[in-house]
Amino acid sequence: MSRLLADVNSEQRRAITMAARHGLVLAGAGSGKTRVLTTRIAWLIEQGVAAPQAILAVTFTNKAAREMRIRLSAMLPLDIRGMWIGTFHGLCNRLLRFHNKDANLPQLFQILDTADQLAAIKRLQKRLDIDVDRYPPRDLQNFINSAKETGLRPHDVDAWDEWSRRRVELFAEYEAQCQREGVVDFPELLLRCYELLQRNEPLRRHYQVRFRHILVDEFQDTNRLQYLWLKLLASDGAADGAKLFCVGDDDQSIYRFRGAEVGNMRAFEREFQVEEVIRLEQNYRSCGHILAAANAIIANNRERLGKQLWTERGHGEPVRIYEAFSDTDEARWIVEEVQALVRDGMLRADLALLYRSNAQSRVLEHQLFSAGIPYRVYGGLRFFERQEIKHALAYLRLIANPDDDTAFLRVVNFPTRGIGARSLERLQDVARDGGTGLYAGAARLDGKPAKVLGAFVALIEGLRVEVQSMSLADMVEHVIERSGLRAHYQADREGQERLENLDELLNAAANFAAEHGSSRSIDESGDDAATLAEFLAHASLEAGDHQADAGTDAVQLMTVHSAKGLEFDVVFLSGLEEGLFPHENSIMESEGLEEERRLMYVAVTRARERLYLSFAQTRMLHGQSRYNLRSRFVEEIPQSVQKWLSPIKGASQFGRAGYFQPGAGATSPPARARAPEPVRRDLDGLQVGQNVRHARFGLGVIVAAEGSGADARVQVNFGRQGVKWLALAIAKLTPA
DNA sequence: CAGCCTCACTTTTTT
DNA sequence: AGTGAGGCTG
Questions:
Q1: Nearest nucleotide by C1' from A359 CA?
Q2: C-alpha to C-alpha distance for A200 and A273, rounded to whole angstroms
Q3: How far apart, in Å, are the Cα atoms of A152 and each of A122, A156, A191, A543?
Q4: Does the pLDDT value for residue A659 go beyond 80?
C-alpha cells in the first residue's frame, strides 16, 4: 500500500483513491480537506494515473495554493514548480500571458487591482462628464464586476430604461478604455480567458486534452464564471474530457455577497452526473461539545446537502457563555479571561478573538492595550496596497507600459513637480481629442503644460533606457531613487516607515527574481521586461499578508470571515446579539439568515479546546447606544453543552434580577453590578433598555424613545420579529 | 498647491 | 465615534 495512505481514514482514502471520474467531496470543517486534495494529486501521480502536467489544481487564495505546493513537494520527489497549481486568477493570468495575441492583449498587459479599477472608473466618468450622483463610481464598479463574474459583456446585459442603458454604455466605455490602456481588472482575467478558450477551438482542445484531472478547492465559493470556466476546461463533462474533483463544504459558504453560488455544487452533481459524493464527517479539530454546538446550530438551515460532524476526541469542555452589560464590560471580561489563560501557560497566539464586523475590534483592542497584552489585528492594509509601494510600482508600470493612464496619473505629480490640475486637464483634453493615452498626448501640448509634462515623460523615458539591462531588484532601487520617491519620504518626518517599506519592496523584488527568474537567466537581455511584467502581475495578484509580524506571541483578532480555514485552541466569539450577529441586513430574508448561520458555524468550528461566546446588553455603534437581544444562535446551542458564566442564564431577557448577584464559576470574575442608565423616563414607566412584551411580537427591548404624552413612541427590538416603532397610546406594552 | 473643513458613510473579502 | 474623500480657501 502506498505510503501516502498511512493514517488516512476510510472516507478520506475513498476520496484520495477514487477512480478517474467526476467526484464531489463534502468536507466538513476540520475533516482534513486540504490533505485529501493534495494527497489525491500525489496519489494520481504516484500510481501513474496522471502525469504532473496533466493535473490542474485550482484554489481561491494564494495562501491555499502555496500550502498545496508545499505539502505536495513533501510528498513527491518531483519538481512541482512547473505544475499548474494556482488561483483562478493566477492560472488565467498565466494562460493569457502565453496567448496574449490570441486574447487581443499586449504582451505586457497590466492588472488593475480593485483600487486601480475604481480610479480608472472615476477617470472615465470625468472624461465623459458623467453625473457621479446618478452613477456612483462604486455602484458602477460593482455593476461591471458582477456582470463579468456572471460571464456577461455589455451587449449581454439587459437595460430597460434610460438610466440602465446609460450604465451599460459606461460599462462598454470602460472596457474600451481598459483595452486602449492595455490593462485588465480581476474579473476580466477570468472572462477574457474563458472567452479565449471558447472562441479558439484548437487552443481549447489543447488544454482540454492536456488536463486530465482538474481539482478544485473551496468549491462552494465559486461564482458563475468560475464554474463556467471549469466546465469548459473539463469539456462539459464529455467522456473524453478531464475529470473534475471538487472539494467543498456547503455549510461553510459565506461569500454569497461577493458572488459565490453554493448552487454550483448541486449544478456540478447534476450536470456532470457525479456518481461519487463522499462525505468527510470525522472532525480532527474540535472536542465533542463544541461539535455538538456546531451541529445543532447548522441543523436549523434548510438548504443543505447534509452532513454531521463527529469526533473521537471525547466531549471536552462545555461552551462557555457570558452576558455583559455593555461592549466595554464584555471586552474587559474577555481580557481578564485571556490573562487567566496566559497565566495558566496558554500561548497568546493560540487565542483568537472573533467578531462579526471589524468595528467591534476597537473595544477589544482598547482593553487589550490597557492591559498590556500583545495582540494582532488581521485585515489592515496589505503590503502591496500601501501608497508608497503603489507609487513605486506605478513608475515601474509606466516603464513597462506607457499607455497605463492609471499609473500615469498616480505619479505624474508625485513627488510634486509643479504639474497642477490645469496642466492635467489640458493634457486630458489633448489625449481625448487625439484618441491617445496621456503619455502620448504630452507630445502634442504647448506652453507651460508642454514643459512640465515633457519633463515627466523625459524622466520615464530616461528610466526605461537606464533600467534596461538591470536585474529586477536594481531596477526597483533605481526607480525609487530617480523618481524622487526616496528623497520625498526622507524629507517627510513621518516617512520612516514608508522608507522601510520601500526597502522591503527591494527585498520582495530580489526574492521574486530568485524564485521566478531562475528558469530563464536574469541577465539574458530582453527578458527583463518579461520579468518586470511578471513581478507587477505578482504584486497585483498577491497583495501580501494581512498580518505584520508573525513572529511575536500575540492574541489574534479577526472577523469570522477571516478566520475561515484557521483553528485555535481557544476562541472567543463576541457580540452575539440580534442585529449584529445575525447582522440586521441579513435577518429579513431566509437566504441571508442561513448565510449568517453558516458564518456562526464557521466561527464555532474554529475552536479546538475551548469556546467562549459572549454578548452585551448595550453596545456603542455609530456613536449611538444600541440595545440588542441575545442572538438566536445562542439559543440554538443545546443546553446540555452550555455553561453560563454570567450570573443567571437569560437574566436580561426575562427581568434583570440576576445582574446583581455575584458571578459564578471559577473562571469568571464577579460581574460588576451597574444599573443600566435610563435615557428618558416617564414613558408610562418604560425606559430605554427595558424588556417589554407585546401581544403580537412577543419579547423585545426598548432601544429608543421620542415624543411625550399622546405622541410618545418607542422603538422596540423584537429580535426575529424585527425592530419596530410603536405609539404608546396604541400599542400595549407591558414590562417583562 | 497644500492644508483644512465638511460631509457622508459605516457587514463580511479575495483576486 | 471615527474615518476617508472631496471641495474650498489661503
A1: B10
A2: 27
A3: 22, 6, 8, 27
A4: no
Q: Nine-digit cell at A513?
A: 527574481
**A676-CA/B8-C1' distance, Å:** 32
Does the pTM of the predicted model rise above 0.85? yes
The burial of A398, by beta-carbon neighbours within 10 Å (0-12 exposed, 13-18 middle, 19 or more buried), is given as: buried
Nearest nucleotide to A621 (CA to C1') is C1
Strand B contact with A561 (CB < 7 A): yes
Tell me which H or E stretch contains A6. none
Task: For residue A14, give the C-alpha cell.
Answer: 475513498
Q: Is the dihedral of CA A355, A358, A363, A369 positive or negative?
A: positive
The answer to whether the bond into A202 is cis (omega within 30° of 0) is no
Please compute the mean of the pLDDT values over residues A578-584 and round it to a whole number: 95
pLDDT digits (tens, 9 = 90+) for A333-367: 999 999 999 999 999 999 999 999 999 999 999 99
Q: CA triplet A669, A675, A679: central angle to 5 degrees?
A: 140
Interatomic distance A245 CA / C10 C1' (Å): 66
Q: Which nucleotides of C are covered by protein (CB under 7 A)?
A: 1-2, 6
Strand A624-627 and strand A276-280: the pairing is unpaired
Strand B nucleotides below 7 A of a protein CB?
1-2, 10-15
Beta-bridge mates of residue A619: A626
Neighbouring residues of A724: CB distance < 8 A, sequence distance ≥ 6: A697, A715, A716, A718
Determine if strand B comes within 7 Å of the CB of A559: yes
